[in-house]
Design a protein that fits this description.
single chain; 337 residues; alpha/beta; inorganic pyrophosphatase (n-terminal core); six-stranded parallel β-sheet; two-stranded antiparallel sheet; 10 strands; globular
Length: 337
């Protein structure tokens, strides 16, 4: 078990690397140990049933759409959970739903229940109360995971990284996150996401740009800060693979770089998800997450995979990069999007 513990700690370190250079290091350090605790809470549950909340709409995108961070991670989690027999469902709001549907289809998960909550009284989708009832009855979920889902700031208004109020494009899924006494897991990469109430507001304010304005006080039982949130999904599946050896091969198939690429590709090509950040301003449909191109993300996914593979194999990795790299021809498709 010490070997497994060290491997999970390394997974947390790798996915928490400040790849966007936004000074999230102090936030990730404060929450150190949360990956092991979150994975253990699922692994130890006799009959886990999991809900996943995601979707972050970028109104300034070209076109305006959901960003590429969130839905691929949610689909990766759903794929892993489904592969080992864990019932799961996903919730998002109506503006983000097309990207979430496209990403699920790309993962071969069109059958995963997707609950779509209306944005505003006239929006398409279900009322929040209807979705909340479905998550509580007939058998309540055991866990709810929010991945890259903006939550209300201290003034009650959801705010993006620039500190702008995005209420007009945002359903209050924080109410769903807190709708029952299930175990909550929050994943973010800045401090404005659901679950980041585990962080002291003064730490967020001192560490990241606009931190004092955007910090979300909605806490989670377990919270993780990652370089980009999608990476934490791979780390969580990896930690579960280490804790549950009978699940390992199925979970590792779903955290592998090639599958991560498949999900990102589906989100962008089929859902027109957008990425902003360093590469593109305004955000556009490109194979990147928060401006980090796939060519930089792939080695991080590869390292997460290698950590798990080495720990499971007792230090002799079976992993071969040539098998896991996304084909180069796929990168060229972005010119057509």
């Amino acid at each position: 078990m010490p070997t497994i513990g060290r491997a999970i700690a390394e997974l947390e370190t790798v996915c928490g690397h400040d790849i966007q250079q936004r000074n999230i290091g102090p936030l990730a350090a404060y929450l150190r140990g949360s990956l092991a605790a979150a994975a253990s809470s699922i692994a130890a549950h006799p009959h886990p049933r999991i809900g996943i909340i995601t979707g972050f709409y970028l109104a300034h995108g070209e076109p305006p759409n959901c960003e590429t961070d969130g839905p691929p991670g949610a689909a990766m989690l759903a794929a892993g959970f489904s592969a080992v027999g864990i019932d799961c469902r996903i919730a998002t709001d109506s503006l983000n739903a097309p990207v979430m549907r496209a990403t699920l289809a790309g993962a071969g998960l069109a059958g995963i229940p997707l609950d779509v909550v209306a944005v505003g009284a006239a929006g398409e989708g279900a009322a929040l109360e209807t979705v909340s009832s479905a998550w509580r009855e007939p058998a309540a979920l055991s866990h709810v995971i929010a991945i890259e889902r903006c939550g209300p700031a201290s003034d009650g208004r959801p705010r993006n990284a620039m500190g702008k109020d995005i209420s007009a494009y945002h359903a209050p899924l924080d109410r769903l996150f807190q709708a029952a006494p299930w175990t909550t897991i929050g994943i973010g990469d800045l401090g404005n996401e659901l679950g980041m109430g585990r962080l002291p507001p003064a730490l967020v304010a001192a560490s990241v740009l606009n931190g004092g304005t955007v910090w979300c006080p909605v806490a989670a039982d377990h919270a993780m800060v990652a370089g980009v949130s999608n990476l934490a999904a791979a780390a969580l599946l990896g930690a579960l693979a280490l804790l549950k050896p009978l699940w390992a091969s199925r979970l590792m198939d779903r955290m592998a770089p090639r599958f991560a690429f498949q999900l990102l590709q589906a989100a962008v090509r089929d859902g027109r998800a957008v990425s902003g950040g360093r590469m593109a301003s305004p955000p556009r449909p490109i194979l990147a997450v928060d401006g980090i191109p796939w060519a930089q993300l792939e080695p991080v996914y590869r390292r997460l995979y290698e950590i798990c593979d080495a720990a499971i194999a007792g230090g002799s990795p079976r992993y071969r990069p040539s098998r896991e790299r996304a084909p180069a021809v796929a990168y060229a498709l972005r010119r057509d999007w």
